[in-house]
Amino acid sequence: MNRIDLAGRSVVITGGARGIGLAVAERALASGANVALWDVDAERLQRTSDELASKHRERIVSDAVVELTDEASVEAAVQKTLAAHGKIDVLVNNAGITGGNGTTWELAPDVWRRVIDVNLIGPYLTCRAVVPHMLKSGYGRIVNIASIAGKEGNPNASHYSASKAGLIGLTKSLGKELAGKNILVNAVTPAAAKTEIFDSMSQQHIDYMLSKIPMNRFLMPEEAASLILWLSSEDCAFSTGAVFDLSGGRATY
Ligand SMILES: NC(=O)c1ccc[n+]([C@@H]2O[C@H](COP(=O)([O-])OP(=O)(O)OC[C@H]3O[C@@H](n4cnc5c(N)ncnc54)[C@H](O)[C@@H]3O)[C@@H](O)[C@H]2O)c1
Fold first, then answer.
1. At 183, which CATH number?
2. Active centre residues (catalytic)
3. Most C-beta atoms within 10 A of its C-beta, which of 25, 188, 201, 208?
């Protein structure tokens, strides 16, 4: 495994209680960073945070229970994180939901809106709250976890695909706004990884996603963490507003 240098960096990971977010937290701690886990699932967050803190006693592991669609909740998480770490160097916008599967005309409006709220408005709110602090310190890396669905549009997941396409658009705009400020903003577009998010999808949809991956296997959360944390490091220096593939050969552009 290559070394990624995140020594002394303070890394916020939304949806850090499990899945890809947890893999990012593990690799960040192994790379010298201190981490702040933000998640809406209070019980799971506490468990994960306690486990990571006992494994990495030399690092700071903080947590914040946050509902990412709520501005006040996001601001409270920022304040709690600043109190624990003194700064935020890296923001990984990882939390996301699928909203289940169905054709566009079958999906209910409240489900569609909720997916847009969590997957797109959430990262907008976290960027809005965190970027001013990065501007003050003159350094930052933001990584948005989009999806191959946002580039290609998966059938029976129009809400999810649209939310991730929107997140790619946010990445491109914000990347340009911050390009001269030493704050780089990039996105990754994973294909399917076997995490608890699978519980919210139909088996037919999971089979469809696997059938589209030329490597003929699922992405491993640790593989996602490698690219996400390289993009979170100083070594990523001349890429911003860019979209990085994690699709096992599925993406053709
Ligand atoms: N696993 C995959 O197949 C896959 C593929 C492509 C993209 N992604 C994206 O990667 C990211 C992580 O996915 P995962 O598989 O680890 O998912 P997961 O379901 O295992 O974990 C997501 C975490 O986000 C948290 N969360 C959800 N809504 C929240 C909210 N409103 N406020 C705060 N926290 C909230 C959950 O509590 C959970 O801990 C998501 O954005 C997902 O869309 C996943």
1. 3.40.50.720
2. 160
3. 25
